[in-house]
Backbone:
């Protein structure tokens, strides 16, 4: 089977095709030379013989053409094959070139229909002409080889579809990895840079207002520590080794809110949260606190969580936060573990973000009927 485009098959196919055509062309040419009929008839037969052979040599060109071209080319070649088979007193084996070509050019259903019609037509003509007994074996061989070519063509199509599917899977894997890195870096750097900005601003205000160098230096040391930690987290995120901890995020939120002079009502322990949800809730807490620091202008923040839920409330104006990429990324992250994320204004003013992941129901225990002692009666 020639390759669809490029490669060695494109160069080697004409040589292979000519060699494969020799068992057909040599006897056909000898028969034309020995024919005693009119010259015009011999010329016409010669044109049919070599046109049929030329179609077989060039049929790989049709692979890159539109479907209409393939249909016309296949019909022309099959018609030439039928004419040559019926007009020249030779073996019907030469019809194989046309039937095999259709198996590769046409969709499976159409190839089966046209090849069956062609073989059936030749069979009827041979039966009517009394030549079926001498040529029946060749006709059966043509049918068998055509069926083999039919399945080979379908196998090649399946392999090509698998190759395309593998390419699409590889493309999707790259896109998913880029999306993961972008989401993690947003969650990571958004919070870290916001906290660094708040602490740097606090150090500046301390120096401008009171000149307390000691406190300003302490804040700058914390900024340096946050910078180093963010750099380490970026490296681990790119390597997909970083694991967010709810306890660490709670401590970071406490420090960030204190630096921003926002009153914080935060829990001191995370023991009541399911272990498998602590990483996911850590991302939610990080993004919610980042949005409070960036957008809300809040004076007070409250964080509450239970076994399978977490809620962050503030008294600011957080309407703009709902439009950011962060909450959309969190919705995807919480949805990945079967939960939901809701955010919106709360009664009395302010904003609330709530993540909830329902616990899976325990599997039903099937009751087993106990047999009486001694077995069955």
Residues:
């Amino acid at each position: 089977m020639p390759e669809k485009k490029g490669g060695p098959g494109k160069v080697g196919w004409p040589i292979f095709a000519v060699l494969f055509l020799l068992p057909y062309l040599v006897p056909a040419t000898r028969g034309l030379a020995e024919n005693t009929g009119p010259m015009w008839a011999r010329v016409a037969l010669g044109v049919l013989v070599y046109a049929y052979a030329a179609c077989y040599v060039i049929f790989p060109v049709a692979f890159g053409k539109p479907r209409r071209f393939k249909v016309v080319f296949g019909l022309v070649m099959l018609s030439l094959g039928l004419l040559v088979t019926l007009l020249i007193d030779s073996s019907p084996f030469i019809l194989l070139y046309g039937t095999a070509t259709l198996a590769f050019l046409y969709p499976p259903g159409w190839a089966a229909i046209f090849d069956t019609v062609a073989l059936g037509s030749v069979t009827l003509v041979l039966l009517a002409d009394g030549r079926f007994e001498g040529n029946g074996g060749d006709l059966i061989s043509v049918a068998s080889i055509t069926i083999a070519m039919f399945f080979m063509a379908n196998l090649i199509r399946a392999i090509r579809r698998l190759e395309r599917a593998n390419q699409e899977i590889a493309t999707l894997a790259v896109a998913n990895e880029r999306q993961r890195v972008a989401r993690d870096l947003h969650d990571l750097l958004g919070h870290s840079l916001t906290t660094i900005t708040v602490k740097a601003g606090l150090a500046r205000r301390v120096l401008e207002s009171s000149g307390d160098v000691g406190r300003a230096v302490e804040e700058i040391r914390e900024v340096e520590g946050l910078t180093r930690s963010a750099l380490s987290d970026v490296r681990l995120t790119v390597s997909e080794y970083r694991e967010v901890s709810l306890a660490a995020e709670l401590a970071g939120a406490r420090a960030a809110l204190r630096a921003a002079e926002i009153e914080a009502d935060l829990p001191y322990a995370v023991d009541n949260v399911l272990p498998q949800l602590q990483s996911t809730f850590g991302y939610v807490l990080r993004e919610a606190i980042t949005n409070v620091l960036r957008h809300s202008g809040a004076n007070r923040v409250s964080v509450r969580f239970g076994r399978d839920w977490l809620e962050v409330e503030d008294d600011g104006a957080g309407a703009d936060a709902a439009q950011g990429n962060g909450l959309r990324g969190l919705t995807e992250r919480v949805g990945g573990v079967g939960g939901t994320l809701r955010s919106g204004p709360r009664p009395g003013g302010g904003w609330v973000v709530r993540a909830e992941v329902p616990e899976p129901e325990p599997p039903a225990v099937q009751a087993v009927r106990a047999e009486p002692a001694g077995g069955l009666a």
About this structure: The two ends are 71 Å apart (CA to CA). The first strand starts at residue 263 and ends at 265.
